[in-house]
Amino acid sequence: MKTTRSFLLLLMLLATSGLNAQKEEDKYAALVSEVRNEVWSLNLPDFKNMTVPEKYRNEPAVILAAHSRLEVTRKTKLDWWGMGLTKQQITCRSIYRQMVYINSQSALEEMSQFSFLSQEKERYTRNEQQRILGMRIIKPDGTIQETAPQEYMETDEGGHPRSHNIQEKWNKLAVPGLEIGDIIDLFFVRYTILNNQNPEPFGFYFMDSYPLLAYSVHCEIDPKLSTFYRCLNGARDFDHSTDTEGNHILDLHTGDSGRVIPDFWYNSARQTPMILMYIYNSKTPYAWMPPSARKPGLYANPNPKLMTDDTRASMKAPGTNWSGLRSGRKGEISKALKARQAEGWSDKKLMDYLYQYCYYRYMENGADYTPASFILLMHELLEKAGIPHRTGITTKDTREPLDQLINYSNTTWFIYLESNGKCYTPPACYAVPGEVPASLQGEEAILEDNTCLTLPSTTPQDNRDMATINASISGTTLHISRREEMSGALKEHFQPYLIMDEDLYNSVRRQLGITATIYDETKEKFHADLRESYRREREQEKERYRNEIIGYHGSEEGLETLLGYQLFSIGNRADSAALAYQVDYVLDGYVKKAGTNFVLSVGRLIGSQPELKGEQRLRKEDIYWEMPRCYQWDITVNLPEGYRISPEGLERLNVKVENDCGAFIVQATTEDGTLRIKAEKRINHKTEPVANWEKLLEITDAANSYEALSIVFQATINPPTSPTTGY
Description:
Elements: H1 2-40, E1 61-78, E2 86-102, H2 105-112, E3 113-122, E4 128-138, E5 144-146, E6 153-155, E7 166-174, E8 183-195, E9 202-205, E10 215-221, E11 226-232, E12 239-242, E13 248-254, H3 268-271, E14 274-280, E15 297-300, H4 304-316, H5 327-342, H6 347-364, H7 371-385, E16 389-394, E17 412-417, E18 422-424, E19 444-447, E20 452-454, E21 464-474, E22 477-486, H8 495-498, H9 501-512, H10 527-553, E23 559-569, E24 579-588, E25 591-594, E26 597-600, E27 623-624, E28 629-638, E29 643-644, H11 647-651, E30 655-659, E31 662-671, E32 674-683, E33 687-688, H12 693-707, E34 711-715
Parallel strand pairs: 1-10, 11-15, 21-28
Antiparallel strand pairs: 1-2, 2-8, 3-4, 3-7, 4-5, 4-8, 6-7, 9-14, 10-13, 11-14, 12-13, 16-17, 16-19, 17-18, 19-20, 21-22, 22-24, 23-24, 25-26, 26-34, 27-33, 28-32, 29-34, 30-31, 31-32
């Protein structure tokens, strides 16, 4: 009887689950229909313009009109699931609509397929999100073809949910009937219900990768909320009013600025006109509230000092001032630091030691690491050891500058060591203690006593990539031995990819004098998993170095064999600060027979160089590089026995282009049966005004032209039948 009852109960639960699922689907379908009718009927005059200005006739696409709409409300509701009697619920609805003229195959491909998260629910918070995509095509004759809901297909392409407590549904759409010359009118609507949480920040961006003829924004925000926004990079301010219910109404309309986001060498955070908006509910429980947000209201372009004060308050706030490591680990680090202090180590040496030790222990417990917790831990241990220092805050160049700060979460903390004035920032990668990452170089900062300073900038020589290449010809193949030494911020992109975790851990342990192995400090039940993790990573190591070669030469074409690779230095020690490694490989197609002579594509040995074509050569925006930089090559090509290079051919390899922005310089010589090429490509500054664009083009064009150079090895009177050299 128990079995029968259980079975009947299971059937009832399954039936209820099925009914609930169907009910949810029906609700979503009804919402889609309602939203479509509403959005298409919005009175937006900009969307009646179907004319492409003559000056944009050759653009791949033109955004004829765009519109953003944001509605945010707050309610206090009964909490049937939580511990309290009530909960604070914020409801957000955002609409983005865009009408785009398709004028190229690339734009057609971009606009022909969409994949999006349509529904999301969190089990415990009861937060919900629903997203709706609407699409219609306007043909050149004015015919409108709306994509029916049946065209949207469920998919699992979105991957796995962030947590097993989250339910997700993904949809995809292949837009039927879209052609070059059509106008695509699309919208994306997002409904969000948040319980006892604040919404994510909102952004309104007034430039795009295509010309943007008109953009309007309309916001309706509950006055019971604390709303902060800042206009950045020349963005216009909102017109502000209130409705009969006291809601804040924000409106803005912009026309054609004539500006387009370039494909490269551009920093959107510092160059694109935008408005960033943060909204808080001061009544939200269980969450720390920055002091500036504890009083409801609209704060337009607030004093940045409010935000820096919030940052300092967050450092001391319960729940945010957790340094991440359990007390046993902190005690271990503190004890080791005191022992070194007793040995008479300088403050700088102690700081470098502490930096590496904290980083090592966070590597061990990666889930506990945040940039803020790292600085807080060092601050706590420095205080305990009595080492003079001050904490400071700054922002990365991927955020707004400190003097235009709009939210405390956009800051980065650092330690200022009093003994040498050096700044220690959270590790961007496997850096030497005190190395400032590219994203923080030259940024304005403020210390805890309100002292202002600028974080160190760098020179091209500080961020250098030195490639030493030995090349030998065997038949029509080229044997390459290339050693790379990358210093400064240039190594940031390569270290995480080429350095294995096991090598990194062992390197840091040696620096710290830790004699125990990683297995000695790991519970035995985890040993098998750890060994398997290292084994899998080693299996990928060869492929990673192969990909490095492909990246260097810009193509897999011609790469015949990877002979070997070796890592010499990780680049995380003051006495070996460069990332150093070597790759040995064979290239085919770089050497060709021409009668009795050989032709070597010698320019390709400096690696792939960017080539700017067509519209890419026209620049209207300032130029942004991550950092000043210098690429250097020392290339030795062993000439086959019985062959030489003519003086005229050698002279063609010498190049010198140098100006205020940088240089591309090559000097070629022959000696003792070898061709020796020393080259340098240098970018002098992190940023350049657009007025210097032609100077940068000179350098870029010179490097690209050099890549295409070949040189003839001429046979002497009695050349050998099969010229070869040893490798």
